[in-house]
Amino acid sequence: MSQAKAGDKVQVHYKGTLPDGQLFDSSEGREPLSFTLGSGQVIKGFDDGVTGMEIGAKKTIHIPNAEAYGPVNDEMIIQFDRAQIPADIPLEIGGTLNMHQDGGQVIPVVVREVTETYVVLDANHPLAGQDLIFELELVGIN
To answer: What is d(CA 115, CA 96) in angstroms, rounded to the nearest whole number?
Structure first.
């Protein structure tokens, strides 16, 4: 059987959990994830984990945060004056807002803290700073 290698388009079923067992993503009930190995379409640790697998193979991989979404970057946690945010925008802790950069790029941010005078928004990826565990099954190689 052939092994998955850089440049192959692969299809993978997966279940992603945090070290405490909390599920953060899964392909269960959906089509498998399809991507080209080595293309940067998925995080490095996931790409590396699939490389070398054969169709039908299953395995569990542990990805340190440096090979996933990286550590939390404190510079991406920003405190804003409450008055800078329009009153009609709901501010719930854990809620997501979209910020717009000058070039028009949209950046999702998570509301971390809300007071009467300021709001703390976090532009880090929600899984930044987290080690990840994936159960993988390679179901196709093209």
So the answer is: 17
79-134 per-position pLDDT tens digit: 999 999 888 988 999 999 998 888 889 999 999 999 999 999 999 999 999 999 99
Amino acid at 85: I
Whether 61 and 45 have beta carbons less than 8 Å apart is answered as yes
Name the phi and psi angles at 86, rounded to 5: -55, 140
Task: Mark out the alpha helices in 30-92 (DSSP H runs).
Answer: 44-50
pTM of the model: 0.83
Nearest to 136 by CA among 16, 42, 6, 40: 16
User: For residues 123 and 110, what is the distance between their CA atoms, to the nearest angstrom?
Assistant: 7
Residue 101 DSSP class: -
